[in-house]
């Protein structure tokens, strides 16, 4: 009897894996037919037909009519991820503010809202502001729409196994059971029961770049966020690299200058102390061009070190510092070019985050989609 139960469980897992493999394939290659999917995923045509019927009925997929071209014979019906019925909620917890977006399964932003919270209060003040904002955005859903997952991007390391925010230095949070607190706050609301997934903000921003616009030319992908802190997210082979304790990507605390300026972590010469600064981001008093250029050169050094360590196919820059534009990016590119020429190597491909100021919030929605469609991660 036990073997039958185990076999049934294995069959259910296999079916779920095949279902989500279809969804992920169509997100990468929209418009494939059932025959195309069967060939690409090494499944039988009957299996694909049965699974796509289920996925269409549940709201994951849709099929569209084929344009008549005059060719003889029956043309296969193209399939697409349905952008309208099943939705994701992505939330960014920033330093003193939260941002919530409602997206489709393919990353289109359907609604968004921001709110402030007082960083001098405890984490519950942030949870309250976040919950209210999430409910306001969720209220924009239509009657035929359903939020199937919630993602949260947090300003610090996340231990997923323990469902904890390990450490967020800029808000002084240590070992916070953020997931449990948020789920408790959502009890009795329309979002109660929706699965909640959380991860470091740079990690989710990297997932937003790979999940919502997948490209084999951007793997491995390294994303670096620059604001009041510096963090990185790394995606290799479609998988997020988080480290043993959820602290992978804390590149802001890589030392770039011995005996340099004091960092928030207590050490000297960290990348964060040399690159990230509130002074650079003040809107009332633009920073001196020389300061921005110097920060850009140090950022170029950091990216060079990361490129040497991870050999990424693509480096993406994001975060509030991107408002500085070419004043910051030009010295970054010049520094990378200088190092590449000295070594006789091509420069790393470099671009700005696709979702701009919403990179973390949209990335958090991508995290929810990533976890829901990767069976081994559920």
UniProtKB/TrEMBL annotation:
InterPro entries: ATPase_NBD, Cro/C1-type_HTH, ROK, ROK_cs, WH-like_DNA-bd_sf, WH_DNA-bd_sf. It comes from Pelomonas lactea. Transmembrane segments: none annotated. This is ROK family protein. It holds the Pfam family HTH_24. Residues 23-51 form the HTH cro/C1-type domain. CDD domains: HTH_XRE. It comes from the Bacteria. Belongs to the ROK (NagC/XylR) family.
